[in-house]
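Record 1 of the preview.
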Amino acid sequence: QVQLVESGGGSVQAGGSLRLSCVASGRILSINTMGWYRQAPGKQRELVAGISSGGSTNYADSVKGRFTISWDNAKKAVYLQMNSLKPEDTAVYFCEADVRVTGSIAFGRYWGQGTQVTVSS
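->
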C-alpha cells in the first residue's frame, strides 16, 4: 500500500550533524503532513518535528534551533537536518505521514521502519 523508508542514520560525536531522509512510495494521491518521531530505550515515542502541506512546521522544544524539517512533495520525501547533536538525541527515528491513497477519500497514518541515530560524547 504505502511504504516509508528512512535513511541517513548513523553514529556521530556530540556536536556533529546528520541528515535523515524518508521517501514515501505506493499508491499515494496526496500527503497532508509528514513528520519525524523518535523513541529512546525506555521512553515513549515523541514528536521531533512535523510539517504540513501548507508548509507550517512544528518542533519539539528540545530540538528547536538545531533541527530543521523540510519536504519535497514531488519526490514524496521528508528530510530532517540535525545539527549540534547531543547524546540525548540518541534514539530510533521514525518517519510518519498522513497520506491519502488511491481509491480512498480519507487520509491514513503510516510509519516507517525507523533508523538508528547514536550520538556519543
